[in-house]
Specification:
The complex is a heterodimer of chains A (345) and B (115). Chain A is built from 15 helices and two strands. A two-stranded antiparallel sheet of chain A has the order 1-2. In chain A, a hairpin with a 2-residue loop joins strand 1 and strand 2. In chain A, helix 5 runs antiparallel to helix 8 and helix 11 runs antiparallel to helix 13. Chain A is elongated, with a radius of gyration of 34 Å. The N and C termini of chain A lie far apart (69 Å). Chain B is of the alpha+beta class. Chain B has a three-stranded antiparallel β-sheet. The longest helix of chain B has 30 residues. The chains are: A mainly alpha (345), B alpha+beta (115). At the A-B interface, helix 2 of A face helix 3, helix 4 and strand 3 of B.
């Protein structure tokens, strides 16, 4: 019987104070009745193993007590999908870009590696870990408060079907977007071909000071002048066609992917062999030589900005291509989801 | 379908029927253990982790009344249906009959492929 007392005592620990005695008395009576019945059936007192089997069948003290407690949840099923969605957005737009920048610094910037040798390199992830943990806690607490206030109010019944957002057609190309692309492409083309002045000029100490082309930019322009010009023309032609037929087809998506990957390839094949040069620019910007005048660092800063801008453009091209490749792979599904298809279904 | 999936669905199906079975049994006064035994003998086995919290919930809703009484030198809590419990039980019984009738019709239609 000592085992039964120990079992009941363990259950008692988790029970609400006001009901402890009442519940334990009832459970105790149930267990003792079961023991008596088993003993009568066997014709002998129960062995320790028999008693253990009975208690095991009832479940752990924690789970038995849990059934007497009110059902509680921090974030209920109504808000949980939105909670997961917000966490994914934070991961996508904060944690992943942060990690990509960190990887790029480790891979391409020797001075960064030198400044954080060995395990110290992973120590630099500490601020990401802290900020992610804080963000996670703040979002969770926010949703828990939302859950509680929703439970107490009747907000969930107050939604208006008329305010539901329109079904988005992911295969439609907005005409305004196409027109804007044409204008931007033509302006860029005019500048690329030398018809517009170079925009890098600024003032120092009140006197205008125009800088010539940055060497890195001049090299890029010289190396890719013709292919980039042709690519811009092709992109503008695609946008012009989209003004007439404002829907993505598989072929047009493939052309767009080809253009974007071509531009990304041009940029990366230009930047790749210059990794050492860019790393030196980074070092002179982040850790300028002692006693150097602030104006002396401007060319390095401009060169580094050019490299970073080109890198970002390449990344955007790759990301847009991945999105368009997914659209090609899921083309039939996306077509079936178009509002016109839904209406006729 | 795996056995686990079947067990989960079976449990969900039976879960809704347990309160009705308990209310039906408690038209006659009983204490927890004898109620559990009676239900098991009638093919509706319910473990005590489900039964006792359910009895408390039904009592807090005013459908059951309970009283502690000593029997064989041991305190036992006896439950019985209240008048409100009887009214709810009658309504639930009608609802149950309506559900089984609907399901019978649906099963028949499916069997004969009439849809």
């Amino acid at each position: 019987m000592d085992l039964v007392e120990r079992y009941l005592n363990a259950v008692r620990f988790w029970l609400p104070k006001a009901q402890k005695q009442d519940i334990i008395s009832e459970l105790s009576e149930d267990i003792r009745s079961q023991i008596e019945e088993r003993e009568a059936a066997l014709g002998r007192p129960l062995a320790a193993a028999d008693l253990e089997a009975i208690l095991k069948e009832k479940g752990s003290p924690y789970s038995v007590a849990g059934r007497f407690l009110p059902q509680r949840q921090l974030i209920g099923p109504a808000l949980f999908p939105m909670y997961v969605f917000v966490l994914k957005i934070v991961a996508l737009f904060y944690a992943i870009p942060w990690l990509l920048v960190w990887c790029a610094l480790i891979l391409f910037v020797p001075s960064y590696r030198a400044a954080h040798p060995g395990p110290a390199l992973f120590g630099t992830l500490g601020s990401l870990w802290t900020s992610m943990l804080t963000t996670f806690a703040v979002i969770t607490v926010g949703f828990a408060v939302g859950e509680e206030s929703q439970r107490r109010s009747s907000v969930r019944h107050a939604w208006d079907p008329k305010r539901l957002p329109a079904v988005r057609d992911v295969l439609k190309i907005p005409r305004f977007g196409s027109a804007a692309e044409i204008v931007i492409d033509l302006l860029f083309l005019a500048w690329w071909l030398g018809g517009l002045p170079f925009p890098l000029a600024f003032r120092t100490g009140g006197a205008p000071a125009a800088f010539g082309p940055v060497p890195l930019w001049a090299d890029f322009r010289a190396q890719t002048w013709a292919p980039i010009a042709l690519t811009i023309v092709a992109a503008a032609a695609l946008s012009a066609f989209a003004l007439v037929r404002p829907y993505w087809t598989r072929i047009r998506l493939a052309v767009r992917v080809a253009i974007d990957l071509f531009v990304a390839g041009l940029i990366l094949s230009f930047l790749g062999p210059r990794a050492t040069e860019i790393s030196a620019l980074w070092t002179s910007v982040v850790d300028p030589p002692a006693g150097a005048a602030s104006a002396a660092g401007i060319p390095a800063w401009l060169g580094l900005s050019t490299a970073l801008t080109l890198g970002i453009v390449a990344l955007i091209c790759v990301a847009v291509s991945v999105r368009n490749l997914i659209r090609i792979a899921r083309y039939e599904t996306l077509r079936a989801r178009r509002p016109s298809a839904l209406k006729s279904a | 379908m795996t056995n686990d999936q079947f067990d989960t669905l079976r449990m969900e199906l039976r879960r809704g029927c347990v309160p009705l079975a308990v209310l039906a049994e408690l038209r006659t006064e009983q204490y927890g253990y004898t109620l559990r035994k009676a239900l098991a003998e009638l093919g509706m086995a319910v473990d005590e982790g489900t039964l006792y919290p359910l009895l408390r919930r039904l009592e807090s809703q005013g459908l059951l009344a309970s009283a502690w009484r000593e029997e064989d030198k041991r305190p036992k809590r006896y439950y019985r249906l209240t008048s409100e419990g009887q009214r709810i039980f009658d309504r639930l019984t009608s609802e149950w009959q309506s559900i089984t009738a609907s399901l019978e019709t649906i099963f028949k239609e499916t069997r004969h492929g009439s849809r």
